[in-house]
Amino acid sequence: MLSPQQLIGCLLHHQFLIPKITSLQSLDLTKLFQEEHDRLNQALDGTDHSWTALTLKLCTSLETANKLVQSTNSNVRLLSEKVEGLEKIIKRGDSAVAAAKAIHVSLNQKGGPFNGSQNV
């Protein structure tokens, strides 16, 4: 059972650490998880009851990792949509360039006003 101080500590940890961690994009989640896991194992090997708070910290780390993965997935979806839009624009541009080249070649073959020997 958690003491009142431990419970308050866990609540503060959950309320204030998760938003802080979530805002850090370069966080090494594996390292964070391993550190909490190691602390939990040390507490379980000992005789005190700090393992309860450490278990909560470990769960918090996993929840944070899950939130970051969900956020990353959302960002990847948005980025993918933007890339698709850019690909469509590039294809339209390529088509316009190809059409302009075809017109230029056609006019040059006919000796039109825009043939290669004249400056515009």
TrEMBL record:
It comes from Salix koriyanagi. This is Uncharacterized protein.
